[in-house]
Amino acid sequence: DVRNYGTVGTADDSVTMAAAIAAVCVGGEVVIPAGITVTIDNVTLTSRKISGRGTLKWVTGSTNPMLTMAGVSPCLAGVTIDGESANHGTTVAVVTSSATQPRFEHLIVKNFRYKFFLSDAVNSPGGQVAGCYFYNCAQVNDSDIFGVRSSRWSFVGCDFEHVTSLGHMIRFGQYAVAVGVAVTDCRVIGCSFFDSAECAIVCETLTQECVIDGCTFRDCADGGVKCEGDVLELVKNITISDCTFDTITSATNAPFQWGVPGTYVNNRCYDCNGGFSLVGGSLVEGNYLENCGA
Predict the structure, then answer these.
(1) Is 16 within 8 Å of 2 (Cβ atoms)?
(2) What pLDDT, on the 0 to 100 scale, is given for residue 254?
(3) pLDDT tens digits, 207-224
(4) Inter-residue contact 251 to 283 (CB < 8 Å)
(5) How confident is the model at residue 251 (pLDDT cuts 50, 70, 90)?
(6) CA pseudo-torsion sign 35, 162, 257, 150
(7) How far apart are CA 271 and CA 235, in angstroms?
(8) pLDDT digits over 71-119, tens only?
(9) Torsion sign over Cα 247, 227, 126, 146
(10) Which of 143, 187, 247, 278 is most buried, judged by most C-beta within 10 A?
(11) End-to-end CA distance of the chain
(12) pTM
């Protein structure tokens, strides 16, 4: 129990949280009970878990990350994480520093003005995001809820809702970083993406062997899934299957837009202003479009 290590419920509980993390063994767990709010800034979570039914908040006006995840299997589970968006600028909230298999489990994440999460390039593989709900995040241009720059990440059974500016819900690849190592073997399975001012998922330069399966995209103004980046030929072997695209409103952008060959099978599109935007060499079969194409 985090309360055993100092005062909580203040404007800055970072010292208490850091003491609780240091006190438990590697693989141990710090619990934030229901009804308890812990406000933190620039705390490092190394090979341990923060869990519970309480709330984590970010120190008002901070220009530091809220939390850095490091070590083996650092984990956030069960808690509500509130970014209090009006109080922050363009600082990433949660980052990794050579974290192997970082985990996000059954969280409620809300009100982050800029990027909620950004992995370091290459050195934090095997991330797992499962059963989480993300709401009202990425409120300024060039912000994303999740920016993934390491390989073998999976998103399973998550819901993303309400991105109000030109950011993405998930961005894969080496975006705005001079790293020549591919981001490979990522999976987005059974997730939903609702009410986005931009494209929900984007695969940037060096995204390869990515699978997006069984997902639902609705009211995403600028498309469901797309590829972009400086070197499109470095995006390879993307599969979109068994997904539903509904009410993609852009007249110029398609439910999925790809500048490179990919595999697109058994998808359903309803009431989308655009159709499919594909290139030669793609495998396209078993798809259904109804009332699509402006």
Answers:
(1) yes
(2) 61
(3) 999 999 999 999 988 888
(4) no
(5) low
(6) negative
(7) 28
(8) 999 999 999 999 986 667 789 999 999 999 999 999 999 999 899 999 9
(9) negative
(10) 143
(11) 56
(12) 0.94
Rounded Cα–Cα distance for residues 166 and 152 (Å) = 26
Structural tokens at position 285? 């079969």
201: amino acid identity, one letter = I
The encoded tokens of residue 161 equal: 């809702």
Separation CA 150–CA 218 (nearest Å): 27
